[in-house]
Amino acid sequence: MMQVLSIHCATTKETPFSGKLIVLTGPSGVGKGTLMRSLLQRHPELYYSVSATTRAPRPGEVDGTNYYFISRSKFEQLLAQGEFLESAEFAGNYYGTPREAVLSQVQSGKLVVLEIELEGARQVRASFPQALSIFILPPSFEELERRIRGRGQDSEEAIARRLQRAKQEIAAADEFDIQIVNDDFETALNAIETALYNRE
Fold first, then answer.
1. How far is CA 30 from CA 26, 82, 143, in A?
2. Could you report the per-residue pLDDT of 129-158, keeping only the tens digit for each?
3. Annotated binding residues, as ranges?
4. Residue spans per domain, the chain
5. Domain 4-48+109-197 falls in which CATH fold?
6. Could you read off the pLDDT of 30-49 as tens digits, one per residue?
7. Exposed site from 35, 65, 97, 162, fewest CB < 10 Å?
8. What is the pTM (predicted TM-score) of this model?
9. Annotated binding site for ATP
């Protein structure tokens, strides 16, 4: 059964923006993407920040919808120009959140949601402490491994890397304002909605 493990939010100085930045993170395979897609279907008023990545598209992924798929050299050029709010290297590929689009949407009053990896989430918290951060946890490590293997997309070597990384990420869960266990999907989704709409 899903449970909200803890809810706490440090007091920060009042944000100069009328919108809100929400960071959703958690280990690979925990269901962040599926939760995010359902959240956006229910709440089209949310602005979802599309990340850039140097990894190849997975089957069914669309450039500009799932990610901006760019070359490593282009990513490094944008990184050097300070164009990313956060960036990280994960499983041999770069990921990053375009800075300008996010800040302009927050300033215009939107709820802006980022679905990003742990390293990037930490960067956002450091540079944008007003952000609400949510960490999605698996019901167990064994279940997480089952979900990753069930994708059928990764080699054994890649799975081993993801699982090792997941252990480190799960250990960081209580750095974040809210932790939600994704056991029952609908309950987890409702808990995210509550976090976004029923709190200051």
1. 7, 30, 9
2. 999 999 999 999 999 999 888 877 778 888
3. 26-33
4. 4-48+109-197
5. Rossmann fold (3.40.50)
6. 999 999 999 999 999 999 99
7. 65
8. 0.80
9. 26-33
